[in-house]
Design brief:
The protein has about 190 residues and is an alpha+beta fold. The protein has five helices and ten strands; from the N terminus they run βββαββαβαβαββαβ. Helix content is about 30%, strand content about 40%.
Amino acid sequence: MYVIDKNIEKELIIKKSRFITILFKINSIDESIKLLEEVKVKYPKASHYCYCCILDNYKKVSDDKEPSKTAGMPILNVLEKLELTNILAVVVRYFGGIKLGSAGLIRAYSNSVKTALDEVNLHKLIPGYKLTIEFDYSSKLQIDYNFKNATIVSKSFKDKITYEVIISKEDYDKLNKKNIQICTLEQTWIETN
């Protein structure tokens, strides 16, 4: 699976119709709903707001009054071919007066998304864990060494030291053999360059 590295907006004119594609990197369904509403506010007089949202196993598409399967599904197909996740792709259309037909619409929506994707980099996602560890002050140097490849999200220094860490599955498997006390463990995905 892959994610885009940044949000992007790209416009194409196809037979006098404006196709404005906005790609958002998202982390939740609620975020995608909010962003879609913001797009509608930004482009209030558009003819259509077609979109595809992919978040892990969740997928939602909308043709927004275009003929069935001529907008949302073509957008989904482009995103799925690249194995993208955590993405909301919205294509805003201002009708230019020339009908494109079903095949023309499919091409227009697909090409709009492909053109926008040409402007971003894709980052691979690898399996990992978000975990919390607690340890004595005397173990700090050893813990820091063992977690040198991990991302330490937060540190707390009280009676004991607590780290919240994001680590790849591969590094976690190696670490698991070192008898480090793990307080919480949650599966996640880690973005790589």
